[in-house]
Amino acid sequence: MKSIVEVKKTAARPERILQYGEGNFLRAFVDWMIDLLNEKTDFNGNVVQVQPLDRGMADMINEQKGLYTTVLRGVQNSKTVEEYRCLNSVSRCINPYRDYETYMAVAENPDLRFIVSNTTEAGIAYHEGDKLDDKPQTSYPGKVCAFLHHRWQHFAGAQRAGLIVIPCELIDKNGDTLKRIVLQYAKEWKLEEAFTTWVEQACDFCNSLVDRIVPGYPREEADALCQKLGYKDNLLDAAEIFHLWVIECHKNFHGDELPFDKAGLNVVWTDDMSFYRTRKVRILNGAHTMTVLAAHQAGLDTVEECIKDQMVYSFMRKGIFEEIIPSMDGDKAELEKYAEDVLERFANPYIRHLLMSISLNSTSKFKTRDLPSLLGYLDKKGTLPKRLVFSLAALISFYQGTEKDGAALKGDRNGQTYLIQDSPEVLARFAQLYGEGGDASAKAARLAKGILSESSWWGQDLTKVPGLEAMVADYLARIWTDGIQATMQSVL
């Protein structure tokens, strides 16, 4: 079979976008959008990718000359939709650890206008010890600061050389945070005051929210898909059909420069993205975190299985519509429409979304995704939401383990070991509390009090929430005596 480079053509266009990150998500999200912009508008621009870590995919991407195929599949309006697209919006991928001068030369490109990124949630962080003359800096913000400084010098501080920065990392206020750390490095490195002024005035750091489920390379189907496409593609990138990009700008909306609307893309330019973020985090992500730990203990392994299981689906649906949405402000009809779309996305038969993948760092996820709904419901209704409280008990039950496997705790599901992964201090506290033994009632009371009182985890002492500690302890004791399924059934 011929390779993709023998069958498909590349397109020489100006490199208008610098992209930190060459992974599955950006390639099936931003680069896919840019490909559509090139086809349907007069944007006429390519993406130059930067490998953010010393080990990555630059060689594979360059071997295919930036070409790869997105495999978009899902369910829309109860109908299965499939879309295959060979993208030629990526010109190349640079490894700055090996080709630093090539990477910095991109700063001298007058056509460059945008920076996008996805360096994981941990990527937008300060790293002590980064220096201007490092080649490259360890941290992503350090790399951006050095890159912008080189561009400022090359164009003698011209305002027209400023860049629009749109990070995609899943942290709140990602653009604001990136800018703050970039300016922190500028101060620490004693860079010119005029440079700091240029960053403030000529550049725009936008906050953004991204939404698309991207499993990535479809390993089990790759050969069959290549046979269907008629060429070998080692960079196949599978994703769902749904996509949403919300971009919050502080200065000007940039829809004239990135005319996503003309390409029919679901991109929202706004001066306040808080509603969109709250909606996604509390409904989509909240439904995941509320359900998956209990569902895993009940013997399920994927989100699709949760949708097909009558009891688990009923639990998830009632939790969303009867507890999460009532805890929120905003138009109820709009929130319910979004929730229906989310459930349809969860049912996508082409997305194998493992519950254990979602289970990572569940304590911090519960704090961000579900605790606001739990407390918001209590504030609005005057009673505790039983399904959300049960999900908190299921989290504590899921973390039952005392033995380590590397950095993880070992949990047990019907004789099968699963790995509980969270921060070391969280795992150590669970192991300590579980190690003290006792019958179901005593253990439940100890765990409920010990975990809910960890203010550093939750931002407050949850034992002070009226009735919560007793309710969690009761659900825990029932999980350990009656079983997870019977206890879940009782809250329906």
Please name the defining characteristics of this protein:
492 residues, 2 domains, 22 helices, 15% strand, N-(1-d-carboxylethyl)-l-norvaline Dehydrogenase, domain 2, Rossmann fold, three-stranded mixed beta sheet
What's the structural blueprint in terms of helices and strands?
Elements: H1 4-7, E1 15-20, H2 24-28, H3 30-40, E2 46-50, H4 58-63, E3 68-76, E4 79-87, E5 90-94, H5 100-105, E6 114-117, H6 140-154, E7 164-167, H7 174-188, H8 193-202, E8 204-205, E9 207-211, H9 222-229, E10 237-239, E11 244-248, E12 267-270, H10 274-297, H11 303-308, H12 310-324, H13 332-346, H14 355-358, H15 362-369, H16 371-381, H17 386-398, E13 404-405, E14 408-413, E15 416-420, H18 424-435, H19 440-452, H20 455-458, H21 468-482, H22 484-490
Parallel strand pairs: 1-2, 1-6, 2-5, 3-10, 6-7, 7-8, 11-12
Antiparallel strand pairs: 3-4, 9-11, 13-14, 14-15
Helix pairs in contact: 6-7, 10-12, 10-15, 10-17, 17-21, 18-19, 19-21, 21-22
